[in-house]
Amino acid sequence: MFSLHVQHIINNKKSIIVMILMLIVIFTLSPTAFKMVWEGHEQVNADITDFSRGDYDLLVRASQSEIERELGVVEENYLGVGNGGITYEQWENIKKDPRIETAAPVASLGFFTKIDQMYQLPKEEGSNRYTVSYKTTDGVNTYLINQQTAYLFKDNEVVYDYFYPIELMNIFGEFDNANFEIPSSYHPVIAIDPQEEKELTGIDFSILNKNINNVQTFPEESQLIPLIDIAESSTPITTEVLIERLDITHQEINDLKQAVDLSPNQSLSDLEYYAELRGEHVEERDEVKEALDTIEETDEQVHIINFFEHLSPFEQEWYMIDDDYNIVMESEYDIDEHGEAGRSSGYLSQNVIYKSLSPKYQKTQNGLSIELLDYEGEIPIHRDLEQVQFQEYDVNGDNSDLLNLFQVDTVTVGEYVDSLAASPMGIYHYQYGHLKETGEQLKPTHHPGSFLSLPANGLISIDWADEFKGEAPIDAIRVKVAGLSGYTEEASQKIQHVAEEIEEMGLHVDIVAGASHQNIDVQVEGIGMVVMPWTTLGAAESIINSWNVFSIVISISFILVALLSFVARIRTMEHELYEDKIRLGLIGWKPSTIQTFYRAQWGIQIVLSVVLSLVILLLSFGIDILMLIGWSITIFIVMIIHASFTVLYKQKNNKTHKPRQSFLIANIYYYRRHIQAASLQLLFSTSVIAFLLTVQQVVSNRISVTDLGQYIHFQINELQIILLLSVVLLTVYTLSESIYRMWKEREEQIEFLKVMGWQNKDIRRSYTKETLSWVSPSVVMGNIIGIIAVVVFFPVNLTVVGINLIVTLSILFALTIVLKVGLRQILMRGVS
Amino acid sequence: MDINVMNLSKTYESNVEQKKVLDQVTFKVNKGEWVNIIGRSGSGKTTLLKCLSGIMSADRGSIINIGDLPIHSKSEEDRREFRRQHIGYIYQDYQLFPAYTAKQNVMLPELPYQNESILLKRAEELMEQLNIEHRQDALPNQLSGGEQQRVAIARALLNNPDIFVCDEPTGNLDRSTRDEVLQILKQLQEEGRTILFVTHDYDVIEYGDRIFEMDDGRLEEVSQKTLIIEKPIKN
Ligand SMILES: Nc1ncnc2c1ncn2[C@@H]1O[C@H](COP(=O)(O)OP(=O)(O)OP(=O)(O)O)[C@@H](O)[C@H]1O
Ligand SMILES: [Mg+2]
């Protein structure tokens, strides 16, 4: 008996080796996949714990914006509108809840304009034309805000006349220097609670609660609001000063005056005054302007002065420009060192706040668009501005109610920016996005009508917010739940709980834990396609969920395909052995003896592969309980399948075939035994491939572009690839074996086709057509199933369907090529 | 079409050995003749038929002319084309395709080259002619040996070939069925077709015009008398 077994093994060595190899693959890969999926899941959890618990857990607001409701993401500039809606009382209620560690309110007041300031340029020799240009930039384009040209005429270093635009009246020619005024700039001021904000950010804001008195610049009786300037905030305005030396004599100027009927005592500027304020002498003014503008310069110099890079917008200290056109603070100015210069002066005009409304978003086919509303100068305006006059200076009356911002400190948030950026919707730092085409980074212009928002420039105490915004001034409260160490399942539940209770107060709550950026394509009219990093809320949860979907889909399909390969394999084996068994019967073996013999044969194979797979598993992973459990389950399932299959096979062996009208169907039906497992496997693996590729596509629009998602995605990908690869390999194996077996069985037929005179190309065509006629439905169906599976989980767009179509066609194309090559080989050499 | 063979040799080459199966075979068959070929098993009869009909290529120097066509110098494609148009081939084991019905099997040779409905008509005609029209929708495994061979003949007739090459077509048939098949072939010969017929069966010899014997790769014509008296056919 023993020698018989050995003989049998030698005779069937090829098919036994294949079987053992396949079993080893199944026995090692299934538990490995099982383990990898398990650990991958933990890995993702750990990532979320580490990365996603930002500085707060909940974002409480009065309501959601419309665009947010529609897209499920929050725009970066969500605070810019600042409609408020939460009362101090509501905030207090939230704050005193013991489960809540921090409840930090935010109230966006809007944009304050900078205290108007003049600056004086150093004295220049001779007569000069000054052209001052103010420019802003959005990071890509530069826009002219304003340009002013003014003239200073000197004789022996004594000024004898001016000519300047009306805006510079009372400014330009003081102290015989050229004086200009910095254009309006707009600065978002946000009210916070110093205590809570410190808990959230670690930055000390306590100075905001200080009482300030006796600051001379302000009307004595008014109230001063302490303000902290944020050092990083800068206003994108540059000042370019062009100074052109003019070779013109006093006499020539007098001639010009005479030509326009001015007496020598009058100034050329008087014409501007008459023209602009009284509407008189407009022609003469224009004449003078043209005459002056066309004077050839004999020399020129250009200076760039970056006021806004150096100075905080709420600074009350004056600054000066030294002889080298550098900015020097008045307190540091030394006439001997810096040269003789008059200091600048300023006056208050902060009775007005500007609020910029939300851009008008429009949903388009592949994202959003923002309409261009207007231009101011050259600057494109995408948001409407609302001007709110919150107080009025009463010249004669009581001004004790007047509010004035007073800078008391400057804070650098730079070192916190990273952690703040990890929980988006910080107020200190925004991510603006870039032009899709060129990748150039964009930033807001100085104008509040910019579609991008400036981060907070100044902070004041929340206690003042109602003075500006009334009853319910708070826009948002950032809530941190107490006693959590990370984003775990338990933490998630606790957060959920608190969120629900706050929602019962009639407020809108978003779970921020795990929030991260997501790129949204926005077509900004006048700018181009802009990729903006908006914020997904509660991304952590959706990542975990989608991850679960991934692993479930992959493991199920791996198991299905692996088991199908196994079934196909035993089927082939049983078929091969069938005649052996009959022969043994013919030479007088009892059926029970035959059965025992083949059971023993199967036993040898199973034991061999069990032992080998165990060795492989132990060598690669050591003793791993999880994996050993997976391994035992797999072995059990394989045994069950084998047992039930050998019973079923006997009953099924009587082949029934019915006449078929079509040659194609006749063949497919007749050889279905070879086709079934292969086409099912093809169906599974294409549906998995389609599912994964499509999900990849969909997810890359929803999660994976998020900073967090991408990281996780990458991790999962490795797993997917290993599993997917084995799914594909097993399918390819079964497919090629099935096709091979089927052609082998029809070898004689192929030979006879040649005898009948068929040309090779006709044989090839006929067999390719036949094979494709069952392969393609599997592939197409598989892809459809894949897409349907995706639709269950995600919204699907046309691109996804398109990609799917391409995948389907490529698989079919590849299969066709392989078939043709295989057939060519067979026709040349015969099936072997 | 007459057949003119000169110096036909065939050597099977394997890694192990070279085996000369046909050795300078020379013979001539006239159009409309029925030639029987006899010989021991393994003597090379099948090989001869295959070389003759271009299924195999013969050794260098062999000359095979069928009609005006020098088969030996033709390409594989040309030989197939020639076979399809001029040669009907029948085997002992019928070579029917198990997935197809009798009728579909008959249509098969021309399937890539002609319209299916034309083929269908032609197949029905042939089957009627061979008295198997009632079995046209049966599958091969539902047919008797005689029926199967008649289906095979109908299939070989599809293109109305000039030459019928029969490799022991009656070997599996009982006496009366065999006679039916031989009658059919006789009739085909009478219609002017050339028949090459390999057989071990002596009764068949009565149907033929001439007899060749294959012996150790050589072919010799033998007279009917000699054969019957002196050399009973061995199996
Ligand atoms: N493809 C092949 N390669 C090598 N040798 C072959 C091949 N085909 C046949 N032979 C050998 O050539 C010899 C002649 O074979 P062939 O089939 O022509 O004999 P046969 O006369 O038809 O015999 P039978 O009466 O048994 O059909 C045999 O010895 C056979 O083993
Ligand atoms: Mg033979």
From TrEMBL, chain A:
Membrane-crossing residue ranges in chain numbering: 16-38, 547-568, 602-623, 629-649, 680-699, 719-736, 771-794, 800-819
Coiled-coil intervals: 274-301
Compartment annotation: Cell membrane
Membrane topology of this protein: Multi-pass membrane protein
InterPro entries associated with the record: ABC3_permease_C
Domain ABC3 transporter permease C-terminal: 722-816
Keywords: Cell membrane, Coiled coil, Membrane, Transmembrane, Transmembrane helix
Gene Ontology cellular component terms for the protein in this record: plasma membrane
The protein's name in its UniProt record: Putative ABC transport system permease protein
Pfam family, one: FtsX
From TrEMBL, chain B:
Entries under Gene3D superfamilies matching the protein: P-loop containing nucleotide triphosphate hydrolases (3.40.50.300)
Molecular-function GO term, any one: ATP binding
Presence of keyword DNA-binding: no
Gene Ontology CC entries for this record: plasma membrane
InterPro entries assigned: AAA+_ATPase, ABC_transporter-like_ATP-bd, ABC_transporter-like_CS, ABC_transpr_LolD-like, MacB-like_ATP-bd, P-loop_NTPase
PROSITE patterns in the cross-refs: ABC_TRANSPORTER_1 (PS00211), ABC_TRANSPORTER_2 (PS50893)
SUPFAM superfamilies: P-loop containing nucleoside triphosphate hydrolases (SSF52540)
Domain of life: Bacteria
Annotated Pfam families: ABC_tran
Keywords: ATP-binding, Nucleotide-binding, Transport
All residue ranges annotated as the ABC transporter domain in the record: 3-233
Range of residues in the leader sequence: none
Name assigned to this protein: Putative ABC transport system ATP-binding protein
Species per Swiss-Prot/TrEMBL record: Piscibacillus halophilus
Lineage: Bacteria, Bacillati, Bacillota, Bacilli, Bacillales
